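tool_call predict_complex ligand=4'-phosphopantetheine
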Amino acid sequence: MLVRRAIYPGSFDPVTNGHLDVIQRAATLFDELVVAVACNAEKKALFTTQERMQLLVDAVAPLQNVRVASFGGLLVNFARSEKASAVVRGLRAISDFEFEFQMALMNRKLEPNIETLFLMPREEYTSISSRVVKEIAQLGGNIDQFVPDKAASALHQKFAATHTA
Ligand code: PNS
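tool_result ok
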């Protein structure tokens, strides 16, 4: 039986409600969705790969056909190893487009059999990014409406030392 599988790759540092919205949408389009945390040594993450994966595992627990994995190296190699036919990326605004377009076309040059699909999260999530959420949390702001509960607690914990110092 042909299983339609897609990869949703990202840094997920940490997962936001915007990511979750894209995951929910993609999960309805494919038999299986693999949410893949990139362990890219160049990008300095706040959370370890394991922490980022665990926050995702908690967030996607209600979704039967979603699994969490991590990958290093080229995305297309990981997608191939997972026998995925598509890569899903979220598009929030025009500002996302240039980078996403370049990445999609380069990935297509590397692996013509894997399509990139762009999904738009609900409007209320279009201004959310992991980077901004981390900044707000670090400065003591309330981030509960932007990220899943466990991610909010994890962010509060990470920055607790800063606030009490
Ligand atoms: O959440 P992000 O940081 O926007 O995700 C970017 C990510 C991890 C999807 C992208 O950097 C990636 O695919 N990295 C893996 C390395 C790779 O394949 N690079 C070539 C892409 S053209």
